[in-house]
Fold this protein.
Amino acid sequence: MQLAPLICVHDVESSSRWYQRLLGCESGHGGVEYERLNSNGQLILQLHNWEVEHQHGRLGDPELRPYGNGVLLWFELEEYEAAVRRAEEMNVEVVRPSHRSENLNWEFWLRDPDGYMIVLTSPLSEPTKSHDA
């Protein structure tokens, strides 16, 4: 089984570039209405334009905020520290700076351009490092 979250965004192409830069992933589809983002050949995230209905109708109401209330997009990254550096270079909205979690891995909480909560995390099995971000 593979989870493939889909979020609605205002600008699919811009959001795609943002996620590609942050996560080091690549476009698997491309377009202004819909995008599939892949990492190592696996689908990790889908982006869908709020206004496009396709055969399924609208996927949500863009007026209801905050987007994804209660849902966090959690990305475990082998290259966690590199992703945090990229996030800092991108001047993202930081919710919680890089810190040790209660599970002893590293976490960095931020918001994407549409306001979705994103958590970057190191693998749970990562050895203890001295990291101050």
